[in-house]
Amino acid sequence: MSQRPNNIYKNSSPSSFLYSLSCQIMGLLKVSIVQLFGFVVLSGLLASPIWATTQYYDFVVKETPYTRLCHTKNILTVNGQFPGPTIEARKGDTVIVSVHNHAGYNITIHWHGVDQPRNPWSDGPEYITQCPIQPGANFTYTILLSEEEGTLWWHAHSDWDRATVHGAIILYPRNGTTFPFPQPYEEIPIILGEWWNANVSEVIADALRTGGAPQISDAYTINGQPGDLYSCSKPGTFKALVEHGKTYLLRVVNAVLNNEIFFAIAGHRLTVVGTDASYTKPFTTDFIMITPGQTMDILLEANQPVTNSTNNRYYMAAWVYSSALNLPFDNTMTTAIIEYINGTSNSSTSPQLPNLPSHNDTDSATNFTANLRSLASEDHPVDVPQTIDERIIISVSVNEILCPNSSCGGPNGNRLAASLNNLSYVLPRIDVLDAYYQNISGVYGTGFPSQPPFYFNFTADNLPFSLVFTRKATEVRVLEYNTSVEIVFQGTNLLAGENHPMHLHGYRFFVVGRGFGNFDQGKDPASYNFVDPPLENTVGVPKNGWAAIRFRATNPGVWFMHCHFDRHFSWGMDTAFIVKNGTSPQAQLLPPPSNMPPCRRAEGLEEAARARGGRRWSRSSGSDGWELGEAVEGSKRRPRGGGQGARGLRRHSMAQESRIPWWGKEGIRGSPGEGRGGGLEADGVGLPAGGSGVGAWGQEPHGWWGRLGVRLRQGPRGRPGQHRMSQRPNNIYKNSSPSSFLYSLSCQIMGLLKVSIVQLFGFVVLSGLLASPIWATTQYYDFVIEETPYTRLCHTKNILTVNGQFPGPTIEARKGDTVIVSVHNHAGYNITIHWHGVDQPRNPWSDGPEYITQCPIQPGANFTYTILLSEEEGTLWWHAHSDWDRATVHGAIILYPRNGTTFPFPQPYEEIPIILGEWWNANVSEVIADALRTGGAPQISDAYTINGQPGDLYSCSKPGTFKALVEHGKTYLLRVVNAVLNNEIFFAIAGHRLTVVGTDASYTKPFTTDFIMITPGQTMDILLEANQPVTNSTNNRYYMAAWVYSSALNLPFDNTMTTAIIEYINGTSNSSTSPQLPNLPSHNDTDSATNFTANLRSLASEDHPVDVPQTIDERIIISVSVNEILCPNSSCGGPNGNRLAASLNNLSYVLPRIDVLDAYYQNISGVYGTGFPSQPPFYFNFTADNLPFSLVFTRKATEVRVLEYNTSVEIVFQGTNLLAGENHPMHLHGYRFFVVGRGFGNFDQGKDPASYNFVDPPLENTVGVPKNGWAAIRFRATNPGVWFMHCHFDRHFSWGMDTAFIVKNGTSPQAQLLPPPSNMPPC
Questions:
Q1: From residue 277, how far is each of 97, 537, 538 by CA, in Å?
Q2: Which residues contact 244 (CB under 8 A, 6 or more apart)?
Q3: Which of 348, 986, 1093, 1137 has the fewest C-beta atoms lying within 10 Å of its C-beta?
Q4: Distance (Å, rounded) from C-alpha 511 to C-alpha 488?
């Protein structure tokens, strides 16, 4: 859980803000001060008694594969997350949410419980206040917060999409005010939901088609996870870590579709302090009963004794309260875990279960609800209308509609329906709000009655059958402004008497009374509570009883009212209120936004789509017809709720967010899924694979595309727990014609920028669009650097992330594409990003190493990287290139073949990214800072990780273990990245052999092996054949595992093993039985590592030829050493009281104060020298066991090597045995090179070149120099610029095992360095 700061926003002065605002608006819009004053007053900025802020979020609606209950299916999500991102703000703020529909379904979003004063345009219910956002379209909601304070939620309001499209809204007190209860230590959002194995759209479509009841759900969930008691669900079970003696605020949302819920926590009592974003008098209870749509704020005191003899783990659990008789319901129980972190727990022992009331315990439900009373204090007063202008009595019924020949699937062969005052609501074809505002007749009637059409004994056990029938209509109720209204909801026993959670949009109301039986207008109002009635937006009408609410109609607009059981809502238990304008400007409906979604509902087609399986029909772009919409996937950052800890749902408060790109809504399919190695997660700051952006419409210096409002993208984010890979389509882009694209491009650019055709032609040529032999595209991503709390190994800490994700988002493109990544530094650290293995032809400005090619992006600043792809094809990765930030700031880059070409191996069924990393419980920046301060070795890591998870064998790590589900007989492509900081890694999968087909984005001759050895910085593409027998007698689960290959003697290293799981989905697995472990080579098995590496050979085929320089212009021999620097009085923490260092040719590199590239380009002297030598300063027996102590010392310098353009270069890295002989993974930026030779001992210039491989040497960007041996590489210096070279062990890189090459310009324009971008970060 994330600890809540006292102030979630920076303080800002209204006067200074207004001054700045006025200056900017007058400058941009050329308006006068008088006009500006009018704008400010209109916006309410001067009128607001308490300064409020505006928060910006971007929601990408898309289909995402998720696995629950052993089943994988695509579900509709926001930003790839289930539940979706959390919105956080303060009381009175404004929240702007841009919704981009990348799915194949129409969609709307409702902000449940937000009054939206005068602004029903952004309320969200489909065909009530708006027409839906169609596939490929977008709409921006403006959420006007007023008096709400506490917990609310948002959800889809179209069909049953809210089953997976929902998330929390957390509204903190205004600045300067506090909670009306002691400040909790931390907060734990709890979203209760449910899961269908079937497609939920098809569930309701089938029910509406047949007229019968919809299929009941297969599970309930807590924060998206079913919990331990369901099949295949234990690993993902949500767990909240608590400390004894602390108090936690649970923010509970009932997002279940069709059931009220009992919820409790074993061994703990709950103190209710709020409901529906309104505080209540605190009361303590063993359980709560919460209706769909309702929210509750609950204090949990972690007061259980913590001892080694107890398990220190307690289930929170929830199941249904079902008041109806003989009505089928899902009677399962969802669980999550409260675990005390300052005690010892045994994960093999089940936690204690709470005692929940029985499913039909109406007394318990009623008694709980009766305790809900408003706080009614001086700071939180109540203002209940004491008298009323209008009483509306509404009978609430489940009904039937007659079917000819008893041909339907409901009772008596009829169609199930539901009604209010015996009217079953029918959605119109355009929205009621627009029809009201535009005065369009024929859309709705105003005849919703103020009482039932006839009175009878509503709650009797036996009612005449004739009463069961209802009629369909679209009738609303009109209210005059400022009317004091009382609504009495009268339950009936027609078909099935049960509780009904009635929700009114646009208003919170006082629940002044409840009772059983028939409401008596003469007697029951005398029992009303006018002193402290609860203030709610969703009221539970008791089974065969009544509930009375009161409110003042002071919010003009159209406001929906409906039962929040979605089956009843779908059957017609709905109506709407039209509240007319008042006389003052503040009492009148706001005008509609200019971009309201249009109504394009085609008669008959949507119904036809439902009948064919629930898919909604959408207009095809560029077509006059209609077709089934296809989902285009994007993603965004998810809340970290499944797996360890409850820290996930974080705040998103960016200054701007981008909008949809004007050229189209597509892009790369993000391959989201649960636990994908890279990609986008949770709430708004983290952005997803198709995602969101900062700085649209010229807000940020993104070049001309920024001025046009390009929406930036980023990779998908998965979730811990069960993981299903998404199948890779054959073509991740839609095909497009270069000529038609250019024509469209020219028209739009000329129209928007007022440029001539000559200027446009110059732009096109400059961009290389006409020169490209194969049509390439440009992809846009947005990276937000932020600190995010993560829990691993029972410890929680803030780590540096991109978009809140660890690992970060995956970038996907095709060979030859261009990728634009805008990096926004919202953290408190300098940062740069490197695109590891991308040649970046002529463009070192975007290569990323700090103080080599750029100065860092400072906190609060941003920089846009242009990644120029050329011949790379396969898997690469990106990572931070400042200090040790790459420990958590990294992600995969997946480069597919160009359109029209294929893999040089059979198409895999699916892909599984595998990112190997490591974890420190300590702050990793402090780890290296302490080492550099003392001169000693840095602390070793506490764990290794696979896709960010340590795995089963570490403490507190089993629930989050990465799991990949496979099918027998299928072949999978593993995309493996070694993002470990300081160790080479052995990796294997139990029971399976691996076929290596590529390394460092270059294909290799396939070879099969039991394991791989992969160096830090290296990537490998590996085919995995799922060929193990699947039987009920076997476990059908196999560990993938990784641990260190450590070649150095007596060098401490983390000797633990990280694991993940391969599970066959077409077999039976037993999660209580451990999977089989693979046999990994021993940690110091140099023979195995060497033999594996020797098998790496280029494909060297007609389609993938090699071009190795056969002769060389320059050979550079570089000794690679770990050294010491003398400390006075032996005062340092390294060997012999000296400071540890590292060197190339006995020079320990020192980063300058401005970057080398800028100094070279601007011809600034004194920044670097050009004296890096072409050979060691002296030769000795580099690999001998006993070397003179005097050789250990090095000197510091900032020396680089200058190369003429087109030089054929050979570099021989010579390992040494100074201090510690070990492997060294040497990485060269800006180039991929051929590894023509390797050997042990000292390199012999006379003999060893004769053994070079010029036929099929591997093409790499990171070469492992063997312990006490050598490695030779060759390349042509045809990429002008400044290019860093360093050891990819970060401790050696930090100690100075680095240098840089300056490759000079050639003579032709295509051989010259590109000019720098205008917005390079300053030094």
A1: 20, 9, 11
A2: 302, 303, 304, 305, 306, 340, 342, 343
A3: 348
A4: 10
Residue 966, both tokens: 């496979």
CA-wise closest residue to 1257 among 1103, 1090, 1113, 1109: 1109
Average pLDDT value over all residues in the chain: 84
Q: Which tokens is 450 given?
A: 């103020």
* Amino acid residing at 193: G
Please name every residue paired with 818 in a beta bridge, in sequence order, or none if there are none.
778, 868
Number of helices (H), then strands (E), belonging to the chain: the values are 14, 67
Residue 238: exposed, middle, or buried by beta-carbon count in 10 A (0-12, 13-18, 19+)? buried
- Could you tell me where the DSSP H helices lie in 817-923? none
Instruction: List Cα–Cα distances, 799 to 862, 1054, 1238, in angstroms.
Output: 19, 20, 38
Structure confidence by residue, pLDDT tens digits, 767-793: 443 334 345 789 999 999 999 999 999
Strand partners, 535: 510
Nearest to 261 by CA among 291, 297, 217: 291
Q: Contact 419/426 with Cβ under 8 angstroms?
A: no
Q: Is 1123 helix (H, G, I), strand (E, B) or coil?
A: strand
Q: CA geometry: angle at 942 spanning 939 and 944, to 5°?
A: 120
Read off the pLDDT band of 496 (50, 70, 90): confident
Q: To the nearest 10°, the Cα dihedral for 898, 904, 905, 911?
A: -30
| Spatial CB neighbours of 528, under 8 Å, sequence gap ≥ 6 | 512, 513, 548
CA 1181/CA 593 separation, integer angstroms:
77
Supply 493's token pair: 């026993």
- The CB-side HSE value for 384 (13 A sphere, CA atoms) comes to 21
Instruction: Name the nearest CA neighbour of 1015 among 769, 1217, 1261.
Output: 1261
Amino acid at 28: L
Q: Is the pLDDT of residue 281 over 80?
A: yes
The predicted model gives 755-766 an average pLDDT of 39
Length of the chain: 1323
Closest CA to 1228 of 1243, 1252, 1210, 1240: 1210
Q: How many CB atoms lie within 10 A of CB 658?
A: 30
Give pLDDT tens digits for 1303-1323. Answer: 999 999 999 999 999 889 998
| pLDDT for the residue 654 | 25
Model confidence band, residue 405 (pLDDT cutoffs 50, 70, 90): confident
Task: For residue 1111, count CB atoms less than 10 angstroms from its CB and return exposed for 0-12, middle for 13-18, buried for 19 or more.
Answer: exposed
Which structure tokens are listed for 896?
């597919």
DSSP, collapsed to helix, strand or coil, labels residue 37 as helix
Per DSSP bridges, beta strands 811-814 and 890-896 are parallel
pLDDT in tens, 420-431: 999 999 999 899
User: Does position 119 have pLDDT exceeding 90, yes or no?
Assistant: yes
Tell me the two tokens of residue 316.
């929170």
Which helix (H) or strand (E) covers residue 18, if one does? helix 14-29
User: What does the alpha-carbon distance between residue 462 and residue 68 come to, in Å, rounded to a whole number?
Assistant: 42
Q: What is the pLDDT of residues 31-51, one digit of tens each?
A: 343 343 333 333 443 334 345
* Coil vs helix vs strand at 247: strand
Most confident of 307-311, 646-650, 790-794: 790-794
Question: How many angstroms separate the first and last alpha carbons of the chain?
Answer: 37
**Tokens coding 998:** 């590529």
- Look up residue 704 and give its DSSP letter: H
Are residues 435 and 238 in contact, defined by beta-carbon separation less than 8 angstroms? Answer: no
Kindly report, residue by residue over 849-858, the tens digit of the pLDDT: 999 999 999 9
Q: What is the pLDDT of residues 210-267, one digit of tens each?
A: 999 999 999 999 999 999 999 999 999 999 999 999 999 999 999 999 999 999 999 9
8 A C-beta contact, residue 713 and residue 780: yes
> Token pair 């401790």 is at which residue?
1291
String of DSSP letters for 1056-1075? --EEEEEEETTS---TTSPP
Question: Radius of gyration over alpha carbons of the chain, in Å?
Answer: 33
